[in-house]
Amino acid sequence: MKKESFFVKKANQRKLKRHQEPSVLAFGAGASGIVGAALALMIYDSKTGTISTVPLLISLLFLVEAAIALLALLLANGQIIKHNEISRPVRLIGVLLAVTIANGNIFCSLAGLILLIKKKNLEYQVGCYMLLVEVLILLVSCLNFFKPWVCDTFFLGMGLLGAVAAIHLISLPLVAAYVKGNRADKKMIPLGIVLILTALTGNLFSLLLGVLLIRKALTKDDHVSISWVDVIKRLFRSQMAVLGAFIIVFLLALSICANLTFDYGIAVDNDYSMILQNPSLVYPFGTDDYGRCVFTRVVFGARISLTVGIFSTAISIVVGILLGAIAGFYSGATDNVIMRILDVFMAIPGLLLPIAIIAAFGTSTANITFALGVGAIPSYARTIRASVLQLQDSEFVEAARACGAKDNIIIFKHILPNSMAPLIIRATLGIGAGVTAVSSLSYLGLGIAPHIPEWGNILKAGSSYLESNPYMAIFPGFAIVILVLAFNFLGDGFRDALDPKLK
Amino acid sequence: MKKKKLAALFLSAVMLLSLVGCNTQTRSEATGSDGSTVSGSVTLNLLYQSSDEVVANVIRDELTRAGMTVEMSAASDGGTFREQMGNGNFDIAIYSWANVMGNPDYSVRGTWYSTGASNYAGINDTTVDSLIEEAAAQTAEEYVETYGELERYVVEEQTYMTPLYQKITGRGFSNVLDANTITNNQRWEDFSYADSSQNSTRPLILSQTAGSVSTWDPIRANDQTTGYALDHMYIHLLTLQPDWSVSTDESLSYSYAVSEDNTQYYFLLRDDCNFARVDENGEVYDSGVMVSGEDVVYSLERARDPNSTPLHQTYSVYENLASTEIVTDISVLDSTMTADGRSVREVLEAEGQTIGSLVATRDEVDNAAGNYQVVCCTTSIPYPQILNGLTFHGAGIVDSEWVEAMNADVDVANYDATTDSLYGDAVTTMEGDGYANHLSLSGNYVLTSMNDYQMNFVANPYIRTNDTEKNPITTITDRFMSDTEAALSALRSGEVDFPYNLPETKYDTIEQDENLDMTYFDGTRVYMLAFNMHGNSAVSESLDLRKAVASCIKYEDISAVLAGNTVECDSFLSACLDCGNTFSYEDGATQQYLEAYFASQEAAA
């Protein structure tokens, strides 16, 4: 009896595992439940003893939506165990869940979109994320309606964003219908081009989808799988990794679109009549000690954090790859000279080198990027050198040598592409570290000028009001945590996706 | 069917959005224009101490709104700030001055006089100089008008500086201290615990923002926090009372008298003070050397002479002090009259002393036997405000033979801080291998040692030995806490009993804490925006540009970001004197002045 129930349980688990819906729904229900509970903490203001209605409403919405997702999950699980498929009425709950994006519930909304369609391909999933990013940005921009005024380009920006969102919405059913396995319909090429163009809003998912469509439409033999597509496919299997990617893409897109839909003046101009206001609809994150909107500052702050994080990592990757590859390939004296110099750099403690560089060359975004980039070179060089040393003795390199390939061809065509996996992982984590480093420097007063919105700056301003106005530090701090976590999740996801043992 | 419904839903959503959109103003609709009516560009470099970052941000904001570009340069500490400002590496600077003496001359002589020791803005105007001289020679009733004229000239007519705000000083302290003993001018000799039995057992922990002390020579320091310590380390001819009046309490003199023409100032000296020194173990001992007239003469002569020591910081306070000498001819005291018609001798003896004979040297002094020392300070012009100057740390009485011996072989003109050592070099009081405390102190408290974190003081038992009650608290530790937020945390956690400086925006936090007390005083520190008058900046040349900047500054904005803990002021003089001026600019003045500036620029080009 006991043995049989164990067997049934295993069989059921296998059934559930074959479907994507249970895990996505569980994640949606759980995550929106947690967000709802977290929002509930903000309802009661212990100082004034009042209950604020907006957080209360949103919190309730999230909890109700979590309950709906839970219900859908239970129904879907039951049907999968019984019939090994989900019935149409249950799938229609997906519509209900999909519209929860209206109050910003990306978790339930995503679960709804996944639940809605029976036959899902990778493109449909990417499309869902692409759409959600766009809609969420529209929603966040809509918060500006509560402001006394909006920036001059606001309506233009909203119109453009609306159009892009409409294109994304339309493309969803199309990609679900016209992409089969490794082959996409040739009709998808124009759509792919349009989607790549909409990536100008910073929506990297639409870039990915566009490239996927074109690549699959141009494929000659659909029995041969495209290796990078497989990596993406595996990446999209991990909820947390895609969530990380989603957050990064969202912040990137937001920092680009904010130029059109947000008023920079509200972020930098002091408003002496609005000093230290608590969060409200007009000022979602409250105002700081100069009466500036903390929410707008956080939105514009993403720009600097991301730029410096990404570009400083780019600098260290390029230089690190070059030095590491040369050191590993030529070994001997060259190796020794390069690595010993890098060892010297490595011996200097983390933030000290950037501080020294900034002290010498002055503070500017470019200098900070450079300073952080230089500091991280040794670790990338070491990573690459280790891979190169390992790959140098492999057969394909020997084959290339035997064919008379030149050194640079061997390095750049044969060795480096095969040693990229650890580098990509390190880079995603490195960007996260870069973001914290910029914030740390600003926090120390060495980074960006105090009035320029940057997360570290905002956090620093808030740190002296922790007791009386905690929101000033909580929100920018939360933003930093979220972005760094997102990069870490994505990095973990890449590690799993690129690991041949986990294929 | 389904698609139609979706389309209808979408359309209604669009309509709803556009409805909201119609009621929403864009920035240019709401503000009228985009404000770009200025026909040229100005870039100004704003220099400030990082502790003044809040106000700097307000000024940046106001100037930016007026169409100017502001580059911010923060100086991490007072020394760097003064160096940058003195070298003219700025266009505008947030310059503050604390009048710790309570007389108007001190507010302006150092900061506005062409040769003033703290004239970092580079003001060089004979009108200013002569007005300062004129006012200095006048009595309190007369000088109000003269100072008013000076203020109008500097602030309104020439706009060398423009007022920002005056601080309200909130003194927050642990309620282990007796609140009645806390005064605005930081008199350690008054401090007492609420439970007075703790005075001799519990060390009092203070904190201050300045962390770098370079000297314990009273005339070589001019920053406020070193000044506070110096006030207590050397005795003075007069002291400043909590109400800023001048008195002989806790001073070296029994009494003082002023000649009728306000040029001679006589002091009858006590004989119960000896210099205290510190041995190699940090223990205070009695040097056996009496603080006498010779020391007074030596101290004040070197205080007024800019070349008496390298890095002299305080001479401009004593510019009008012509000479100081010991009076040996007793008939002078009888023949010199004071303003109220009594002789100087009568006034000096009013406290109960009877002068039998006047003696010249410390060996002959014996008050009990009637042998007294009288010192006379003579000013070059009638200058009653010298009395306030004598309470300042620069007039602290040092050990003449001791200091002379230590500074004998230093060449003032070719002083090199890296090799030459002077009396008072703070490095000698640092704990560790180099510790060799060579101070000889006459004040209420003796500095025994210091390190990178704090200074240690003990009450001086060898001065005013005839007084029964003095210096209630026997041990005081003064910590270096450059961050006022950290000082506040330390105060609240009980780590510090009394920090000098607290963040203005946090006074209510202290008031709400049941373990802390708070008292408010009109601050002595006035903040002004100084223009670069060294001649190497656009603002040096153009009065229009200075006025354009000045007209942007709104006191209300500054007050708002400082949580209202400020007082409106007119100039440095406001700390001790209301000259009756009010300065204001009409709306739109900034644009007019800017246009005038641009026009003159074009004309010049």
Sheet with most strands of chain B: 6 strands, mixed
Question: What is the percent of helical residues of chain B?
Answer: 25-40%
Q: How much beta of chain B, percentage-wise? A: 15-25%
Shape of chain A: globular
Oligomerization state: heterodimer
| Strand percentage of chain A | under 5%
Largest sheet of chain A: 2 strands, antiparallel
Q: Strand order within the widest sheet of chain B?
A: 3-2-4-22-5-23
State the largest interface. Answer: A-B, 28 and 34 residues
What would you call the shape of chain B? globular
Uncertain stretches of chain A: none
Helices of chain B, by number, come to 19
Please give the alpha-carbon distance between the first and last residues of chain B.
Answer: 75 Å
> What structural class do helix, strand and pairing data of chain A support?
mainly alpha
- Our count of helices of chain A gives 21
Overview of this protein structure:
The complex is a heterodimer of chains A (503) and B (605). Chain A has 503 residues and is an all-alpha fold. Helices cover 73% and strands 2% of the residues of chain A. Chain A has 21 helices and five strands. In chain A, 44% of the residues are buried. With 605 residues, chain B is α+β, with helices and mostly antiparallel strands. In chain B, helix 5 runs antiparallel to helix 6, helix 6 (126-136) runs antiparallel to helix 7 (140-157) and helix 17 (543-552) packs antiparallel against helix 19 (589-604). In chain B, strand 7 and strand 8 form a beta hairpin. The mean pLDDT of chain B is 87. In chain B, strands 3-2-4-22-5-23 form a six-stranded mixed β-sheet. Chain B has a five-stranded mixed β-sheet with strand order 18-19-20-6-21, sandwiched between helices. In chain B, 31% of the residues lie in helices and 21% in strands. The A-B interface holds A 142, 145, 148-152, 154-155, 158, 162, 263, 265, 269-270, 272-273, 275, 289-291, 445, 449-451, 464, 467-468 and B 14, 17, 20-21, 24-31, 34, 50, 53-54, 57-58, 60-61, 64-65, 72, 74, 485, 503, 505-506, 508-509, 556-557, 560-561.
